[in-house]
Amino acid sequence: MSLHDAMVGVGNSSRFRDDMLLLRRIAQKVPCGEGCEEWVQERFSRCEARVDGREAVGLLWAGIADFLSISFLRGSRWDRDLVEFSFLEIDSNSDITDSVVAVRNICTVRHANREVSNARLEKMESTNTVSFWAQRCEIFPGLDFGMDVKAHIGSIDEGIFRTVLRKLNLLNQAALEWIDTGGAHPPWKTEVSPESERAKGYDRVIAERTFKDASGASKFFEWHARYGSAGRIHLIADRGSMKIVIGYIGPHLWLPSP
């Protein structure tokens, strides 16, 4: 279904006034080819795509330029992460070839969440100890990082940093699910535990696990997750914000002998 078809379909009913306004705004956006590299526009001019007998200009642009397809939920064809379609192309020898391409598609909230998650994971894979601090909120939206963590990250070896990221990703997953599940604690995806009552009886234990949160307030980060052979991530599950606050990332802190 083209954008024009959608506008005609809803334009005569007051029930769909908001939908009509949305479609009009979409129609006024910059054309797909604006800003594309010259080779993309040149190839597009040599191609034609049809879906269910209708010209599929948007899908063709998406397939050639690696854009996202944004579709309306009109049958099972569109309720999927990837939409396949065929198109004809005139090659340099003036021969016509028939090709099939799959484009990433957003039709429901589930599809949009998948795209956001994929983009986040790509950024996580490309970050390093230098760039992480500026990207932390995009990569881990379910986590807050205390003010001391920037220095902790800077002192971590790049080799072990990938292990830290994987552990933070599990904590982030738990925080995001916590918003839906509720409860006193997040649905942990990795082992997370508090210090023992005996350990908390030592002032040194309390002092070494007291760090600044994101607002600068000093707090006791009692709970911790493990990474590597002896690394610790000290954290607080904040029920007010439904986020997991990271206060410390680094080597195992002091504990009294058994």
Structural write-up:
This protein is of the alpha+beta class and 258 residues long. 38% of the residues lie in helices and 24% in strands. It is built from nine helices and twelve strands. The strands form three sheets. Strands 2-1-4-5-3 form a five-stranded mixed sheet. A five-stranded mixed sheet has the order 6-12-11-10-7. A two-stranded antiparallel sheet has the order 8-9. It is elongated and about 80 Å long. The model has no long low-confidence stretch (mean pLDDT 88).
What's the short version?
The termini are far apart. The protein is built from nine helices and twelve strands. It has a five-stranded mixed beta sheet. A five-stranded mixed beta sheet has the order 6-12-11-10-7.
Low-confidence parts: none
The count of strands amounts to 12
* H/E topology pattern: HHHEEHEEEHHEHHEHEEEEE
Q: Per the principal axes of the C-alpha atoms, what is the gross shape?
A: elongated
The main sheet comes to: 5 strands, mixed
C-alpha Rg (nearest Å): 26 Å
Share of helical residues? 25-40%
Strands of the largest sheet, in order across it? 2-1-4-5-3
Number of helices: 9
**Straight-line N-to-C gap:** 70 Å
Give the overall average pLDDT.
Answer: 88
Structural class comes to: alpha+beta
Strand content: 15-25%
